[in-house]
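SEQUENCE WITH STRUCTURE:
===
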Amino acid sequence: MQNALFVGVSSQMALQRELDVISNNMANVSTTGFKGRSTRFQEYLMPVASADSFARPDRRLSYVIDQGTTIDLGQGPIEQTGNPLNVAVKGAAFIAVQSPQGERYTRNGAFEIDPTGALVTSDGYKVAGDGGPITINPQETGLTIGLDGTVSTNLGIRGKIKLVTFANPQRLTNEGGNLYASPEPARPAGIEGRLESGALERSNVRPVIEMTRLMDVNRSYAMVSSMITRLDDLRGTAIRRLADVA
């Protein structure tokens, strides 16, 4: 009976983790370039007893282990904005930016020009260029961003946005502010990533799917809670009856 309670609690912990992930996805349905996540679980079978003298062998108990989350790297819908400072990332690439913690990566292509003339994201992070930060003087006109990230104005090429990919993008970790950190070095995107100027990539989270997942998780959590309550009541009844016999 005690083992059944442990199994139920492990299931509840896993469901709570999944609920947190779904909630985060739903909160970022409108976040530019956001990539949804899904939970990944693994079955853990409790080792059997080592003694050979048992009349009946131990049953193998199956627990739930949280194995982390995976990123949905599918392309989000592209929305045309007509703003030359907006770019949608296509393919597996990420845009490199400079944060206080060092180089980080994003799919947020909603750029702006800050008071110093630097090209920055909507959160204020400077966009990294292949040759350093990209700056635009207020007097310059005709700004365009090419497919490969080349930024040009009426005065010529002003820099090239640093597009990168990763050998294992599933190792990327969220740091808030729509930024990712990577434990492995980034590599140039090459043909794996292109930019579409005058457009933005929207979140790839599908609200209907997430709402369905949310209902399934809530239903499963309620079922496990009911099972734990019944087991606890059964244990209490057994203890009272044993006391009456004594």
